[in-house]
Amino acid sequence: xxxxxxxxxxxxxxxxxxxxxxxxxxxxxxxxxxxxxxxxxxxxxxxxxxxxxxxxxxxxxxxxxxxxxxxxxxxxxxxxxxxxxxxxxxxxxxxxx
Length: 97
Description:
mainly beta, 53% strand, single chain, globular, six-stranded antiparallel β-sheet
């Protein structure tokens, strides 16, 4: 099962298993992953899983500071095992075991 590991300043603060649902990341409490970080938009990014739960697509939601995967700015990409997503002082590791 795929998971997101959330880090703040290099320290893991949470883990979220992923299914085929949509997951949103941002500052607002309505997001599945809430990041208290002024460098993160209210609705920063979304990750959609396909019905089989084997393919996950990240989409930047027109965030002000952008979303970086593997050190490059992306508007959308298919996540691969080990991808690191960077949002200000937060990073999210995508693992698909």
